[in-house]
Task: structure prediction
Amino acid sequence: MKKRFDELTEQEILALNESDINTLIDAEAIEQGVKILSKPTKPELTEIAEQDVTLFNIQGTSLYFLNAEEANTVANYLKACSSLKDIKMDVSAGITKIEKEANMAFALKEEKCYSAELFESIKEAKKANSAAQSKYQSLLKEYNDEKSKKDKIAASIRKKTTDVKNKYAEMERLKSIFTENYLPVAETKEKAMEAFKKAFEISEETEGYVLG
Result:
């Protein structure tokens, strides 16, 4: 069985290419029980006819008209009824009283809907579309949930990979400085390192790398 990422040495991490990293991410995700899924494809839905009936509702009422002129006639009549109010009642301690009253605008609102005949002809297609869309949303949620878990694993692996590469890039930079600027002017490598350590605060590991 191949090594998991946490089992790799730093030298093995340095040798990783993008394909290797992606393979390790997948392997770690599988090891942690994450589902490796393909993003679901949006379903091809049956084209549904547009709503074929225009209704006119007098707002503030449950009255709907197929004819705008008739709706306006009734709305204007209602506006002319001065005693017709939008009344809110307050019932407390067994007493009912008017809490608030206001004039009503009775404005018209245009709405679209299906006729009974057209709806009967498309209801099965709408039902099938709804089921397909629901299934797609369920699969998409599962995909996104699992992808989120995998992304966290990927972020951790990529960060550790970057940290290792940055660490060795910095040690290589210090080695170049040591080799080019300190060794040529010192009597011995040891004395060159003594001078180098006065200028640069380095770990034992970095010292070993620079001298290597």
In short: The mean pLDDT is 93. The chain has two domains: 5-42+119-184, 53-87+96-113. The radius of gyration is 38 Å. DSSP finds six helices and five strands in the chain.
